[in-house]
Every structure is written in structure tokens, then in C-alpha cells.
Amino acid sequence: MSVKIEKAAGTGFCFGVKRAITILEKTAKEQGSVETIGAVVHNKQVLQRLGILGVTVADSVERVRGNTLAIGAHGVGPEVEAEIHARNINIIDTTCRSVHRAQAIAERLSKAGFFVVVYGDANHPEVKGILAWANGKGIATQNAKVISELNPLPKRIGVLSQTTGIPSSFIDFVKGLLDTTFNKDSELHVVDTICHDIRRRQASAQQLAEKVDLMFVVGDHTSANTNRLAELCSKLTKTYLIETADEIKPRWLKGHKHIGITGGASTAEETINEVLSRLEKLCGS
Ligand code: SF4
Fold first, then answer.
1. Least C-beta-crowded within 10 Å: which of 71, 158, 257, 282?
2. pLDDT band at 40 (very low <50, low <70, confident <90, very high)
3. Residues 117 and 132 reside in one and the same domain
4. Ligand 1 center from residue 237 Cα (angstroms)
5. Ligand 1 center to 227 CA (angstroms)
6. How far is the CA of 181 from the centre of ligand 1 (A)?
């Protein structure tokens, strides 16, 4: 019996990653090389390809050797921007517009007197950058209890999400805040900052995962949005998160009749197609 293999809608780079890569490729071509502050995207294959073109990663502003520095799609906080300006380095800003929006909201809420809560992974560069715009008046967490244990408990709380958050989990988090922090004179201001591309990508991956009996999520193991896709799909069907086609073990395919593929926002369509070709080969389709 033949095996059906289907790709989810909307795979390939999201608009933010596409834009960042285009700018970096153009700059590297014009200047011969360009440094980025931290990894411009969380995808090893993409970084390797950019490296060949002359795009290199600097761990910190101090370590920058040239006079042009690119900020990646995840953005940075105001203090990093100030550090770059202080060194008179030219900035090429590839921060995604959805991330810029979240940063501006964090800044606005903080200036308006809200304690800013960023729902997301506190160690992720995007979250660190967004929180930095709250000028020290906030916290990043995925656990509402952390907020309820703050002493004193903030009366005015402004909440936003990491752009790659899962909408239903964000809503649960906000409900948790209402349950645990809301009392007399409390004010809770919630802003939806989850990116549209991520919503669509998650929805199409879930639709496909509901139909198939095996799902492959393609992307870097360190990529936040790739991990969230895998988390969502694994609730619906057997799911593997892989970075490249080479990782597929033939024994994984045994007994499966309908296989789905999706990919993270920084996974090239080319990598997805390599996975598709390998699956077709292994399944004899
Ligand atoms: S996932 Fe969304 S917010 Fe992140 S870079 Fe892509 S388009 Fe921008």
C-alpha cells in the first residue's frame, strides 16, 4: 500500500526571517562581510550558508571588529543599541516589524505605569530584548504563579506575549493571572503580540497533524517556534522534530500510511523539500 506524504501550507521562511536574510546577503555582497550581534536566526543551516557569504556572528558589541553591525530579526534592547552607538558602529537593523511592535508596546506600557509581563521564555533573545524596553519594570515568565508571588503584588499589570507563543497557552496564562493576581483596584492590560505568520503556521500544522498518522516538524532544535510546532503536533499525532532529512530513521516510518511535514519560521523551503524527497524515497512513493 502506498504512503501519502503531505506538506502543510505556509512552510518556508516567515516574512521577518526572509527580510533579515535578504538585507544581510545584500550587505555582505556590497561590503564583503558583515557581523551580526548574536545569531541572526535560530537555524544552523541558514547560518552556515550566510557564513559562506561573509556574515559572521559577534557574541557581544565589545567583540565586534568591523564598523558595521547587524541586529537580527529577534531585535535587541535599548542598552545594546546605545552600546553600538557609543562605539560609532553603523547599525543595520533587521529586527522584524512584529518584534518592533512588541518592543514598542512594552515601552509604552512601562511608561504608562504598568508592570510589564512578557509571556515567554526568559532566556530567549527576543524576550530579553522586549523586556529591556520596559526599562527594568517587568518580568518574563510562562508561569502566572511567579507573578502572584511578587511582593508587593503590582496593581497595574501589562501583559504581552513572545511573538512565537501559542495563542491558547497565552490565553490560559492570562486566565491564570486573573485568578491569582486580580483583586481590589487591580488593572490588567493585555495586548496580543503573537505574530500572524506563527498563528497561520501553527493552525495549518495542526490541521495536517489531525489527518496524518506521523508528523515531521523541520527546524533547529533550539528554535522556539519550531519547538512549539512540535509541541502542538505531538498532542495530535506521533511527531518527530528534525533539523535535516539525514536525521530520519527508516524504522520511524514502519506501519505509517499518511505522513505530514511542516517547518519552523527560519527553516528554508529547500530543507523541507529535502525531507519530502527523502521520505518519498524511503517510502517508495
Ligand atoms: S516568526 Fe513572526 S515575529 Fe518572528 S521573525 Fe518571523 S514574522 Fe517576525
1. 257
2. confident
3. yes
4. 26
5. 15
6. 30
User: Please, which residues have CB within 8 angstroms of residue 268's CB and are 6 or more apart in sequence?
Assistant: 12, 13, 43, 45, 46
Q: Does one domain contain both 202 and 274?
A: yes
Please say if the pLDDT value at position 285 is more than 80.
Answer: no
User: CATH code at 112?
Assistant: 3.40.1010.20
| Atom 2 of ligand 1, nearest CA residue | 195
User: In which domain, by residue range, is 159 found?
Assistant: 98-190
Among candidate residues 85, 105, 203, the one with its CA nearest the CA of residue 159: 105
Measured in Å, residue 164 CA sits from the centre of ligand 1 at 7
Q: 139-153 pLDDT, tens per residue?
A: 999 999 999 999 999
Ligand 1 residue neighbourhood (C-beta within 6 Å): 14-17, 73, 96, 98-99, 163-164, 195, 197-198, 225, 265
Q: What is the pLDDT of residue 1?
A: 64
User: How many structural domains compose the chain?
Assistant: 3
Residues 176 and 126 in one domain: yes
Residue nearest to atom 6 of ligand 1 (CA): 16
Which ligand 1 atom minimizes the distance to the CA of 74?
5
Q: What CATH number is attached to the domain comprising 59?
A: 3.40.50.11270
Ligand 1 nearest-atom number relative to CA 164: 1
The total number of residues written for the chain in this structure: 285
Residues labelled catalytic: 126
